[in-house]
């Protein structure tokens, strides 16, 4: 994996060292307080050369709209990031640094955010704030970076800050979202012994959400009992979290039991989120009659559907092959002045694509363009998957040209999709070019990327190339922890 251009190894900055060191050593670099050294050491990297092969599809190009977005985010982030390496930038304009940090956090770019935060800590006007740490910890939780979150928490303590409930809850979230539930529970216990830092309903909602996502339903009753003991009343968010979790796990009896409790408790009532959870659970499992029954029940309760409700029903009818009912929902939306979104059209395109109904899929893709609805990465993924499955690789090429001339933001799932398509078709040159384009676009390869390419190389007897990729995947896994396994 390419290392980031870097930096003075002494201050709290997240440099290439974090990528090349084992976790224990990177922790030492992270924990050091801001200081200055007389001589800066820089680490440079050479990027992979761009392929001159026309089969690269020009994916490295940026459209004018891309450039506009870059001027708003990249220039702000990179412009500040480039100053991290220098000792002289100790009196930067506060607004520039803080805005760059805000953009990096919003864009969920944790490496850049922590580099900018390192620069922020060097400023003469810097004052530690719990709010800043809370935002950074929440971002690291979303990126599933529990070790980095833990180190950042230690840095905050070293600055003399007393953690607030929000800070503790953000760290709980970082542990819980990564599946480290035992650490999350231990931290909640610690919170109880800290003055004015007792866990609140938001803390417990995060724990419940993570328990359902990691199939630890055995812990739910424990959390609810603890909340009751502390005098924390359940609300809609708590019940909806539990109902949604049971529904996605196919635990329909527990889901309906939780709904009954919600109705009986009195202080909170089902809402459209509850409706969508039940419809999604039954619809996704193919229990169309129960889905329709609960839709009617919620109508009688006076709970009105939203656009997500209709998208769920369209997907459910589509999976069941009930295309007439799918169209009925679309017609109903039109009469009730619900405008279909790109999510709606993506659902329909995906349904027809998986069913091999290429003509119907193409018809809706043309409709999107006619209506001026902007397709996204998922739209193109569905199209490429369908064309690849049908053996229409010339249409995949056409999609790639369409992508080149659009301002769609490409992501790792998109590249995985096209890499897999060309790999299955035996076009290993295009597959390799796309891998390079992926890296240049800063889309991180994941386990799916490597698996698709390794499989393609092995299928064509290129065992040496497959072995090299496998070694690269192992190295990347060691350096980046779980980053490459999330797929």
From TrEMBL:
Q: Which InterPro entries match?
A: PPR5-like, PPR_rpt, TPR-like_helical_dom_sf
Pfam families linked to this entry: PPR, PPR_2
**Extent of the signal sequence:** none
Tell me a Gene Ontology molecular-function term this record carries: mRNA binding
Positions of PPR repeats: 129-163, 164-194, 200-234, 235-269, 271-305, 306-340, 341-375, 376-410, 411-445
Record keywords, A-Z: Repeat
Q: Which family does it belong to?
A: Belongs to the PPR family. P subfamily.
Database matches in NCBIfam families: PPR (TIGR00756)
* Name by which UniProt lists this protein: Pentatricopeptide repeat-containing protein
Origin species, per record, is: Acacia crassicarpa (northern wattle)
């Amino acid at each position: 994996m390419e290392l980031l251009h870097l930096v003075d190894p002494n201050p709290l900055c997240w440099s290439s060292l974090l990528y090349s060191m084992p976790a224990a050593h990177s922790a030492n670099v992270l924990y050091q307080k801001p200081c200055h050294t007389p001589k800066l050491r820089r680490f440079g990297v050479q990027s992979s050369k761009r392929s001159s092969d026309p089969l690269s599809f020009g994916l490295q190009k940026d459209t004018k709209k891309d450039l506009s977005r870059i001027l708003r985010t990249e220039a702000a982030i990179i412009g500040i990031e480039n100053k991290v390496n220098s000792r002289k930038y100790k009196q930067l304009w506060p607004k520039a640094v803080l805005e760059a940090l805000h953009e990096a956090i919003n864009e969920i770019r944790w490496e850049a955010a922590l580099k900018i935060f390192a620069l922020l800590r060097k400023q003469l006007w810097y004052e530690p704030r719990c709010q800043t740490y809370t935002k950074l910890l929440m971002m690291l939780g979303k990126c599933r970076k529990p070790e980095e979150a833990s180190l950042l928490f230690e840095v905050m303590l070293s600055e003399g800050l007393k953690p607030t409930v929000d800070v503790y809850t953000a760290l709980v979230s970082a542990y819980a979202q990564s599946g480290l539930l035992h650490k999350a529970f231990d931290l909640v216990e610690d919170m109880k012994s800290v003055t004015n830092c007792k866990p609140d309903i938001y803390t417990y909602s995060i724990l419940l959400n993570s328990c359902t996502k990691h199939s630890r339903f055995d812990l739910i009753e424990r959390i609810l009992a603890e909340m009751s003991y502390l005098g924390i009343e359940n609300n809609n968010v708590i019940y909806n979290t539990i109902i949604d979790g049971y529904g996605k796990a196919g635990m329909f009896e527990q889901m309906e039991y939780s709904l009954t409790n919600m109705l009986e408790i009195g202080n909170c009532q089902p809402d459209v989120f509850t409706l969508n959870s039940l419809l999604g659970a039954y619809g996704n499992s193919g229990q169309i009659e129960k889905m329709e029954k609960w839709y009617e029940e919620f109508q009688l309760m006076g709970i009105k559907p939203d656009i997500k409700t209709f998208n769920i029903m369209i997907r459910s009818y589509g999976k069941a092959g009930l295309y007439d009912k799918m169209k009925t929902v679309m017609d109903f939306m039109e009469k009730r002045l619900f405008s279909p979104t790109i999510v709606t059209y993506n659902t329909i395109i995906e349904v027809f694509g998986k069913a091999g109904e290429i003509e119907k899929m193409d018809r809706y893709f043309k409709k999107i363009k006619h209506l001026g609805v902007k397709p996204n990465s998922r739209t193109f993924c569905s199209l490429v998957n369908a064309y690849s499955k049908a053996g229409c690789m010339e249409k995949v090429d056409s999609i790639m040209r369409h992508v080149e001339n659009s301002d769609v933001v490409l992501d790792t799932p998109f590249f995985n999709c096209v890499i897999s398509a060309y790999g299955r078709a035996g076009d290993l040159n295009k597959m390799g070019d796309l891998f390079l384009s992926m890296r240049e676009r800063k889309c991180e390869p994941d386990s799916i990327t490597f698996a698709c390419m390794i499989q393609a190389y092995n299928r064509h007897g290129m065992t040496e190339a497959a072995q090299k990729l496998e070694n690269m995947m192992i190295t990347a896994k060691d350096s980046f922890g779980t980053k490459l396994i999330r797929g």
